Amino acid sequence: MHELYEKLKQYYPLGELTEQRNNLAFITLKQEQLRPVLLHLRDKENYTHLVILTAVDWLEDNCFQLTYLLSNRTNATDIGLRLMIPRDNATMESIHDIWPTAATYQRELREMFGIDFPESPRVNEDFILEGWNDIPPYRRDFDTLKFSEETFAQRPGRETKDPAEHMKQKLYPDGA
Amino acid sequence: MKEELEKRIIKGPDGLEFEVEPLRDYYCEAPPTVMPAAYSKIVEDLFNWARSESIWILGFGTGCGAIEMRPLMTPRFDAYRFGVQWRPTPRQSNLFIISGYLSVKTLKRVIRSYEQMQNPKYVIGLGSCTINGGMYWDSYNTIKRLDQYLPVDLYIAGCMPRPEALLAGFADLKKLIRSGKAEGANEYAEKFEWYKANQKRVINDWDMPDYNW
């Protein structure tokens, strides 16, 4: 993994390398470097499979982190590319021309996080949520509990107990 | 409204043009009506006995509970010995098992399927998700009370209930049907407005007819 990182670094300005396991590492990079690095990994280093494209909402830093996880099937190693994009009007370049499967991930991110991928096929169509008119539900400032209480009828009588306290009460009712 | 439901002119293969209005041509506009009981109690009891002995389930798994139906179909639990069997289409079935959590997107399909079933029809809510939301109690996309949207005859509690619980549920449902208490379809017809209002409150993009008969 380290060798690959050094090799890549000769061509592209890269951020730090995080080695999680022998066969899994993450590289941080800038938004502009993504496409050349992806193409290099796919065409020259045999990372031919896009495993997942996912996002993390860093609400406090006001940015989204995108992770592109690639897999090399011949030597069974995975490499993840991480980058940060600003949270306001979040837009990212689409990679559906490199891996067509990315279009599905991008459609999901558009719906769940509100990250736009212009020119990605069918990116603005409803995916899982139909007729959603609130802020995207995977954003951390979306309050799911409040939303579900307001939207869906609840059955009265549901109560939640702290397991430790409840068992203490039940086993030692005298408080011993 | 969906594009395919709008009124339009269609050119047939023979070159003739004709007008299609799907809502009028393909759907029955009339809301459901209450089906009266048979003319005498003993005949109605006979009907109910027959209904209870041929419970045909719609093969529509909405959530994780659908996995419990596979062992029921196969020799280990073999629900067929109780007159219970699974059918591929709503037209042939009279029992709808809502198996677990129901997302808003699935609810729309469930309503369509339920309305296409013939009277008399029954609904079983399987698992705690259909009762009070279960482990999805704070989810943004699953309903918490099934009986707000469809008339439920019977709930089977658990997460998930075992196939034995389902068999016990079928036995209880048979008792309900025989005693004439499983009148969900009539209840749906009576309180149609109320059910529709509840359904439309959660389904924001209502793009189908009000009654999908």
Q: Which stretches of chain A are low in confidence, meaning pLDDT under 50 for 5 or more residues running?
A: none
Low-confidence stretches of chain B: none
Number of domains of chain A: 1
Largest interface: A-B, 19 and 23 residues
Strand content of chain A: 15-25%
CATH fold descriptor of chain A: Beta Polymerase, domain 2
Shape of chain A: extended
Estimate the strand proportion of chain B.
5-15%
Computed CA radius of gyration of chain B, to the nearest angstrom: 19 Å
* Secondary structural class of chain B: alpha/beta
Q: From the structure provided, what is the oligomeric state, counting identical versus distinct chains?
A: heterodimer
Annotated CATH homologous superfamily of chain A: NADH:ubiquinone oxidoreductase Nqo5 subunit
The figure for the number of domains of chain B is: 1
Tally the beta strands of chain A: 5
Number of strands of chain B: 7
Instruction: Report the C-alpha radius of gyration of chain A, rounded.
Output: 22 Å
Label the CATH architecture of chain B: 3-Layer(aba) Sandwich
Averaged pLDDT of chain A: 92
Number of helices of chain B: 8
Order of SSEs of chain A, N→C?
HEEHEEEHHH
Helix content of chain A: 25-40%
Characterization of the model:
The complex is a heterodimer of chains A (176) and B (213). In chain A, 27% of the residues lie in helices and 23% in strands. Chain A has 5 helices and 5 strands. Chain A has a 5-stranded mixed β-sheet with strand order 1-2-5-4-3. The longest helix of chain A has 11 residues. The N and C termini of chain A lie far apart (57 Å). Chain B has a single domain, classed as Rossmann fold, CATH 3.40.50.12280. In chain B, helix 2 packs antiparallel against helix 6. Chain B starts with 7 loop residues before the first strand and ends in an 11-residue tail after the last helix. In chain B, 34% of the residues are buried. The mean pLDDT of chain B is 90.
